[in-house]
């Protein structure tokens, strides 16, 4: 997250919770352009995908040991191709820890903001602005699920697609955390505000700390890409800008670490 000279601070929003907003105009759900399959690997990612009733599975390549490591048995008619570990290594990214399991499946269905904004103050929304590293996005998903966030929101461009790398980093959270991909992030933040959420952007130059800026009601945590931070238009659509109180000897944190800390702070605040 970058530092900025300007900040926008504010108290709790005057707007009342108006319930769910309608679907965004000119928006759409996941925005996934590829019609191809998604290939997942690793026990947690594959097991979560197999248990997800909203996921359409095509084929599982596996070792005997890999299938035995799964929680539960595969249906007798499930398409499995038995293979050696060396064969599986040729199906995944180089040096990827497939753990004897590679699953080919269809991408998850699109979601809309109106489907996930429940207004629960205990369940924050995480908004990412141009965070493109699938390892970071997967790690943020894992933290978001651990702290019971209601959704992850990203732009459909400048964000990684579903992939084995992202799913492995998410450790199963890809299948259970709603992920909304939108055309215009600024408009999405407007819709989030209309649903009663207080939007806090994380930036190293925020005048208040995150603990000071957190409201007692619904909150959306907005994080930008490492180095560049939030884009100006996204920055302008935040109700408050806050910083994490880190040592002056360290300029910033990895975005996934910052997200985890922010989610913990949101989970520990007093809610009314």
Automatic annotation (TrEMBL):
<dbReference type="GO" id="GO:0005829">
    <property type="term" value="C:cytosol"/>
</dbReference>
<protein>
    <submittedName>
        <fullName>Pseudouridine synthase</fullName>
    </submittedName>
</protein>
<dbReference type="Pfam" id="PF08032">
    <property type="entry name" value="SpoU_sub_bind"/>
</dbReference>
<dbReference type="GO" id="GO:0006396">
    <property type="term" value="P:RNA processing"/>
</dbReference>
<dbReference type="InterPro" id="IPR029026">
    <property type="entry name" value="tRNA_m1G_MTases_N"/>
</dbReference>
<dbReference type="Pfam" id="PF00588">
    <property type="entry name" value="SpoU_methylase"/>
</dbReference>
<feature type="compositionally biased region" description="Basic residues">
    <location>
        <begin position="15"/>
        <end position="26"/>
    </location>
</feature>
<dbReference type="InterPro" id="IPR004441">
    <property type="entry name" value="rRNA_MeTrfase_TrmH"/>
</dbReference>
<feature type="compositionally biased region" description="Basic and acidic residues">
    <location>
        <begin position="1"/>
        <end position="12"/>
    </location>
</feature>
<keyword id="KW-0808">Transferase</keyword>
<feature type="domain" description="RNA 2-O ribose methyltransferase substrate binding">
    <location>
        <begin position="39"/>
        <end position="111"/>
    </location>
</feature>
<keyword id="KW-0489">Methyltransferase</keyword>
<dbReference type="InterPro" id="IPR029028">
    <property type="entry name" value="Alpha/beta_knot_MTases"/>
</dbReference>
<dbReference type="InterPro" id="IPR001537">
    <property type="entry name" value="SpoU_MeTrfase"/>
</dbReference>
<dbReference type="InterPro" id="IPR029064">
    <property type="entry name" value="Ribosomal_eL30-like_sf"/>
</dbReference>
<feature type="region of interest" description="Disordered">
    <location>
        <begin position="1"/>
        <end position="35"/>
    </location>
</feature>
<dbReference type="GO" id="GO:0032259">
    <property type="term" value="P:methylation"/>
</dbReference>
<dbReference type="InterPro" id="IPR013123">
    <property type="entry name" value="SpoU_subst-bd"/>
</dbReference>
<dbReference type="GO" id="GO:0008173">
    <property type="term" value="F:RNA methyltransferase activity"/>
</dbReference>
<dbReference type="GO" id="GO:0003723">
    <property type="term" value="F:RNA binding"/>
</dbReference>
């Amino acid at each position: 997250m970058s530092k900025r000279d300007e900040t926008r601070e504010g108290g709790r929003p005057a707007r009342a919770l108006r319930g769910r907003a309608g679907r965004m105009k000119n928006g759409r759900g996941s925005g996934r352009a590829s019609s191809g399959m998604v290939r997942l690997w690793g026990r947690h990612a594959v097991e979560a995908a197999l248990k997800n009733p909203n996921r359409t599975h095509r084929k599982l390549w596996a070792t005997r040991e890999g299938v035995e490591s799964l929680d539960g048995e595969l249906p007798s008619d499930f398409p499995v191709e038995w293979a050696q570990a060396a064969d599986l290594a040729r199906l995944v990214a180089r040096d990827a820890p497939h753990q004897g399991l590679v699953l080919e499946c269809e991408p998850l269905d699109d979601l809309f903001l109106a489907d996930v904004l429940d207004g629960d103050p205990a369940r924050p929304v995480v908004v990412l602005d141009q965070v493109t590293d699938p390892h970071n996005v997967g790690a943020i998903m894992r933290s978001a699920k651990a702290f019971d966030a209601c959704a992850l929101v990203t732009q459909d461009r400048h964000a990684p697609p579903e992939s084995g790398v992202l799913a492995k980093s998410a450790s199963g959270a890809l299948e259970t955390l709603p992920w909304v991909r939108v055309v215009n992030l600024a408009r999405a933040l407007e819709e989030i505000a209309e649903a009663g959420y207080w939007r806090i952007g994380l930036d190293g130059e925020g005048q208040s700390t995150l603990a000071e800026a957190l409201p007692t009601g619904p909150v959306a945590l907005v994080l930008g890409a490492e180095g560049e931070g939030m884009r100006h238009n996204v920055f302008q659509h935040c109700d408050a800008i806050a910083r994490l109180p880190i040592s002056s000897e360290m300029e910033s944190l990895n975005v996934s670490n910052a997200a985890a800390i922010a989610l913990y702070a949101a989970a520990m605040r007093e809610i009314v």
